[in-house]
Design goal:
alpha/beta, TIM Barrel, 43% helix, globular
């Protein structure tokens, strides 16, 4: 199924400490004024999806719920105009209201909720816990909500994962912060290793699912990991202007990296050259790629840090992904047994989904 991210707005109502879209993003991506897709662009995007066989759209930002009327118009237009469209939304959840909640429930919209843990952890990193909390029960009840938890601090990871499971959310994916120099060296690596193993142990006890461990297990099981990102994996994103990009993060670098628009479609020349350049220069020849063969780091983050694709990757991010892989490999048979039991209950494990760069 073809899929596309739709970035309704680059604006957000929060200022998360670790946000990859702050500071390093281009000025055209982080404007001071209100920026949001207009109805004409939304209408044309729906036409583009229908014409090009796009069956899944992830509504993204910024915060896609920030301008609720535009969000509601986009959802209803896509549902009305694109047959059998499947919709998802990546949201911090702080702007949910009754009308939006009913829409999520009635249309079975998939929700990826950014939640960092309990009240103290959430408010220390991004804020807004008390605005999300009233909706926890109904978000759980949709059966379509998965939590993405940013590892904003290495301490307390297992406790906060268990807290989210305790709210009723069955699955948590731990995202490592991509911001350079965010973590405190060896101390944080050792702490994260202990916390991740503790969270995995809680999964084996039946408290909930650690989705990133399942995804890593599937990758190691196949023994054919290929370094890639949304760009080399043929990702696609549309921004609030109707410009097309090879993944949902490339708009942060500005319009010069666009590969087309929803009226004229994708430029095959720019599309091919951009993706091939990323794969060749960034993944094949990169010293970081050779050093970290199990890690697919985001080239947009590299470009923001170094001004080119030739800079070194965020080593702390890469080391923490390696820790995930080491622990998952250590518990290979226990994870396999867990997955077999899940399948037997008819609750098959979630498929692979690369969420690391998205929050």
């Amino acid at each position: 199924m073809k899929s596309c991210y739709f970035l309704i707005t680059p604006n957000c109502n929060l200022t998360c400490k670790y946000c990859f879209q702050r500071g390093d993003a281009s000025t055209e991506y982080s404007p001071p004024q209100k920026i949001v897709a207009d109805k004409q662009t939304i209408d044309q995007f729906a036409v583009y999806c229908k014409t090009n066989g796009i069956g899944r759209v992830e509504l993204f930002g910024g915060e896609p719920l920030l301008y609720r009327d535009s969000f509601l118009y986009a959802v209803r237009t896509l549902i009305d105009q694109v047959p059998r469209i499947r919709l998802g939304v990546v949201t911090n959840g702080t702007l949910i209201d009754e009308e939006l909640m009913q829409l999520f429930e009635q249309e079975k919209i998939g929700i990826l909720l950014s939640l960092d843990g309990d009240r103290a952890r959430q408010n220390s990193m991004r804020g807004g816990f008390d605005r999300i909390a009233p909706w926890f029960d109904r978000l759980v009840a949709t059966g379509n909500t998965m939590v993405a938890m940013q590892v904003g601090a290495a301490d307390g990871v297992a406790r906060n994962v268990r807290y989210v499971w305790g709210l009723g959310f069955p699955s948590v994916y731990l995202n490592i912060v991509q911001t350079y120099d965010w973590y405190n060296g060896e101390e944080d690596l050792n702490l994260f290793e202990a916390e991740y193993e503790a969270a995995l142990g809680a999964m084996f006890e039946g408290e909930g699912e650690l989705a990133c461990a399942i995804s890593m297990h599937q990758m190691l099981e196949r023994n054919r990991h290929k370094l890639m990102c949304g760009i080399t994996a043929k990702g696609l994103a549309c921004d609030w202007r109707g410009l097309l990009y090879p993944c949902h993060r490339v708009p942060e670098l500005g319009t010069k990296f666009s590969i087309g628009d929803i009226r004229d479609g994708v430029s095959e020349r720019k599309n091919r050259l951009y993706r091939e350049r990323i794969n060749r220069q960034y993944f094949v020849k990169s010293a970081s790629a050779r050093q970290y063969p199990l890690v697919s780091f985001c080239p947009v983050s590299v470009y923001q840090q170094h001004g080119s694709l030739n800079g070194s990757w965020n080593s702390m991010f890469c080391e923490m992904i390696n820790i995930k892989a080491k622990i998952v490999a250590k518990h290979h048979y226990a994870i396999e047994e867990y997955r077999i039991k899940k399948r037997a209950k008819g609750k098959g494990s979630r498929p692979d989904k690369c969420i690391e760069p998205a929050f």
